[in-house]
Amino acid sequence: MAEKLPPLTAQDVEGPLNDPTFTVYMYVGSKNDEGWDNAELAFGLLARLRIYLVEDIALIKKWIGNKKPKGIVFGWDDQPVRFLNKAQADDFKIVLTAIQDAR
Amino acid sequence: MCRIHSIRRAVTLVTLILLFSPGVPAKEADPVEKDFFAGLNFQLVEETKDVDRPIASDHRTQVDFRSTLILRFDPLEEKAERAPDNPAWTGLQAILETVGDIAEEYTALNAASINIDDPNEVEELQQHVKQHGARVVAAVIGTYDHAAKTGRFENSNEFVQLLNGRTTEPGYKPGQQYENLAFFLAQEIERLQASARHLREEKSGYEVTVIAIRHPISAQVQALHVDPYDNLPGGQLSGGPLAEYGIRMTEEELSRFRMEVEMSARAAEAIREIMANGDDIRDEAKALAKRLETRLKTMLDSFALDEGTLKEWRTQLDRMIEEMVRVEATASAQEVKTAASQVAEALRGYRDDLDTAGQIVTTLTDLRDQLTTPGTTDLFEIVAGEHGLFTKLNTLASQVKTLGTASGKWAERAKTIAQKAPLIGQQLINEAVVKEIETFLGKLPKTASALTAVSEYLSTAGKVARAAETLEEAAHEQIYFDINEEAPPSGVITLNHYQLNRGEHITVKVQFRAKDSTDIRKFAHATTYRLEVEKLEQHHSIGASLIFARAQTGTDDATRWKPNVAAMVNWHYRHRDPENGFEEMWNWLNPGAGVHLASLDQGDDTAEFGIGPGFTFWNGLMHAGFGWNLSQPEDREYFFLGVNLFHLLDVARPTAGGATWQAEIDTR
Q1: ipTM of the predicted structure?
Q2: DSSP H or E run through B470
Q3: Contact B164 A40 (CB under 8 A)
Q4: In this structure, what are the phi and psi dihedrals at residue B266, rounded to the nearest 5 degrees?
Q5: Residues of B whose CB is below 8 A from A95
Q6: Is the pLDDT of residue B279 over 70?
Q7: Predicted confidence band at B493 (pLDDT cuts at 50, 70, 90)?
Q8: Cα–Cα distance between B214 and B485 in angstroms, integer?
Q9: Omega of the bond leading into B241 within 30 degrees of 0 (cis)
Q10: Residues 28-67 of A with CB under 8 A from B
Q11: How confident is the model at residue B480 (pLDDT cuts 50, 70, 90)?
């Protein structure tokens, strides 16, 4: 199920990110954003997907460095495959396609 | 003048009748009805001997003068069952059939227990997930795209919220995306089916007719027979189609041919007269120009203004305005400041009008000078050129009208100055100037109305054309057919039953009205096709031209270029859809080849005739060829160059008053 950072920490998501049977999509923002609606839609339709709502971007610095993306798409490991800006994260077609392409 | 006034009165009357008559067709249909008729299937087709060509309603299309136009309606029965043929319906139905499968796969894949230490198992799972994901993405995006085309959503987030179950619409559950997707698909499919049923029921309440109107280049508009939508006669050539290769002339062709012969003969005679009496004609032309010059001088004198006077007045006004600005800046009392400002404003108004008066004087002077400049010989340039009389008279009319309108403020300005001047305590105005200006303005209204009458008449010509079309439509009884289970009959317009000429316009209107409407001329929907008649592919032309011919050898008199008349028949080919630069060039040049019979003047005989081959370009405008003089025993060969004066008039027409009319028709 969808989880939030915080209370989860970077250490908490390292395990799921390294699980080769799941992919991950992180959204940076709040639960009322269109971008989060899209993340929930993807979670409800695409199998073997974990989604995280990141409310403190500093917690995922390890994966994004100094970038400030709204969406981070991971493949079958802990390496980001694609960063999405706000317009992209707000477009459900782009979100679904980006997650699918990362697999 | 009286004629112009009566034409204007007639135009105004027609416009008023059309505006207030219940017979004016509705310009704007109800938006709901617009959507409803957008789904109706009918098509205008040009039927030629080789192929049927669909005609679009969004731009003017060329049609061949011999073709048949057919307006075809799709059978309504097919339209009523159209939902299964609708791409949105079939697309959504196909997606719905896959949703059950992918939902099951989603559950199974999420529940799968995998040994993550076994690379083969992991890879196999990843492959399945990827394949599943591809089907999911296609289904969801496909659903949205189909639904979005029908205007179901304002934005994509509305769709996402629906699938996430965050909606007030009943039947959707939070977090049940697959269930919601299936529910949405089923709802949309039902909605499209209902829409198709509604379309079928609604359409039975309407009836339709088809009207065709012909716009000849220089004659009244005419309603063409559309079988079976009216009882008009089938056209003057309905006894038989036009001959494609033969040269048998119809009555109209014969009539035009006679006029061309007569016109060319008169032109040849006039040219011969000019050649013989050139000096006399030049003197006549000079006298005519002199009379016009005198008229213009009288007009200028009546204004009692010259550039020197105008300059002097302007200097005085500038000085007074500067003085008022100074008073406004330096006076201590606010009342005086305000008075100075108001007087300055009134004076500036006078100055602007004075400048306009100056422009009028300049235009009048130009007109006079143009006629008196030695060496001006190009009559066309004098009358219709860029700086010609026509343009200048229009400019003059506009300037006089501007000044005439401004003159309405003069009394008010004079009153302002009279009231405020005592406050300022100075004698500001040169009363003589004011009096002169008032005298000048007293002459304006009459002059302005005379000059603007011409331009107003020209601007109303297009309205007359539109009004004529509407009146022609109303002049005969249209037959309406119900839109019900059966398709309305095809409307057939046989163009080769009419003597159509190149460049004529035809409008075909498909008009729908509600059967229960109390206003029988109020249309619920109308589609208009705009066509231009062209002579396409193989065709021939018969005509008479003014020619200049000379013998190849013989006496000095025989080898001089002399004007005469020739009758000729030419065959042409025009590409219907030019596919390359060569074919475009060919159509532009529109060459033809044929034979001619010419009257000649190369010997002592009173009547001489010649015959031979010839070529023509630009659709018969220019001719060239050679032949043999049948009346001469020797030196028989001759050459000629010719021009068809009728065609020349047709080509020249758009540059004259006809341009306004044409532009109005084009923008309808």
Answers
A1: 0.93
A2: helix B444-474
A3: yes
A4: -65, -40
A5: none
A6: no
A7: very high
A8: 32
A9: no
A10: 34, 37-38, 40-41, 44-48
A11: confident
Q: What is the nearest CA distance from B86 to chain A, expressed in angstroms?
A: 24
Q: Which two tokens stand for residue B15?
A: 């416009």
* Chain B residues with at least one Cβ partner in A under 8 Å: 105-106, 109-110, 114, 116, 122, 125-126, 129-130, 132-134, 136-137, 140-141, 144, 156-157, 159-161, 163-164, 166, 175-178, 181
Of residues B644 and B392, the one with the higher pLDDT is B644
Which residues of A are less than 8 Å from B157 in CB distance?
34, 37, 90, 92
Of A83, A90, A75, nearest in space to B130 by CA = A75
Q: How confident is the model at residue B192 (pLDDT cuts 50, 70, 90)?
A: confident
Interface test with chain A among B126, B127, B141, by most A beta carbons within 10 Å: B126
In terms of Cβ atoms closer than 10 Å to its own Cβ (0-12, 13-18, 19+), residue B581 is exposed
Of A40, A48, A96, the CB nearest to B110: A48
Check residue B338 and give its pLDDT.
Answer: 87
Work out how many domains chain A is built from and give that number. Answer: 1
Radius of gyration of the CA atoms of chain B, in A: 38
CATH code at A9? 3.40.30.10
DSSP A59-93: GGHHHHTT---SEEEE-SSSSEEEEE-HHHHT-HH
Q: Does the pLDDT value for residue A71 go beyond 90? A: yes
Instruction: Say if the Cβ atoms of A93 and B141 lie within 8 Å.
Output: yes
For residue B9, pLDDT over 90 is answered with no
User: Which position has the higher pLDDT, A51 or B152?
Assistant: A51
The domains found in chain B, sorted by start residue, are 23-74+205-232+477-534 (2.60.40), 83-202 (no CATH), 281-442 (no CATH), 537-666 (no CATH)
The model's pTM is: 0.42
User: By C-alpha distance, which of B527, B507, B530 is closest to B60?
Assistant: B530
Report the residue from B116, B157, B164 with minimal CB separation from A20.
B116
What is the C-alpha separation between B82 and B195, in angstroms, rounded?
10
- pLDDT, residue B660, reads 31
Preferred mutation among B124, B130, B183 to probe A, highest tally of A CBs within 10 A = B130
- Residue B644, token pair as written in the block: 């068809």
CB of A100 less than 8 A from some CB of B: yes
